[in-house]
Amino acid sequence: SSSSSSSSSSSSSSPSVKDLFDKATKAVADKNTRWSSEPSYGDKMEMYALFKSVRYGPCTDGSGRPSLFDPVARAKWDAWANLGDKVHSKEEAQKLYIKLVGKYVDL
């Protein structure tokens, strides 16, 4: 049993939230990323929703909901819409995304 945690801080300053967010998004997009386990469906939807929240802000267009004939797009849109009041800023969404991706990938 090792008591030391492996923190890879090669520089004296810690990476910014934006740097960590960029690293997390690259890890999610990279097909070669090694995941510690398969993220749950709920976590995948939350990753998508948080990413959309960072890129586009809160989901405000109720008429933009995809039709029942596109259940995947509709589920993603619903996850984004359901973030609602849980996320109050772009930086908060970035931090939540980093934390969620970090459950599965070493960042």
Structural class: mainly alpha
Q: In terms of per-residue confidence, which ranges show pLDDT below 50 for 5 or more consecutive residues?
A: 1-11
Report how far apart the termini are: 22 Å
Number of helices: 4
Computed over alpha carbons, the radius of gyration is 16 Å
Total DSSP E strands: 0
* Major pleated sheet: none
Average pLDDT score: 87
Order of helices and strands: HHHH
Estimate the strand proportion.
under 5%
- What is the helix content? 40-55%
Overall spatial form: globular
3D architecture notes:
16% of the residues are buried. By secondary structure, this protein is mainly α. The chain has helices spanning 17-29, 41-56, 71-83, 90-102. The model is unreliable at 1-11 (pLDDT under 50). Helix 1 packs across helix 4 (90-102), helix 2 (41-56) crosses helix 3 and helix 2 runs antiparallel to helix 4 (90-102). The longest helix is centred in the middle third of the chain and has 16 residues, at 41-56. It is globular and about 45 Å long.
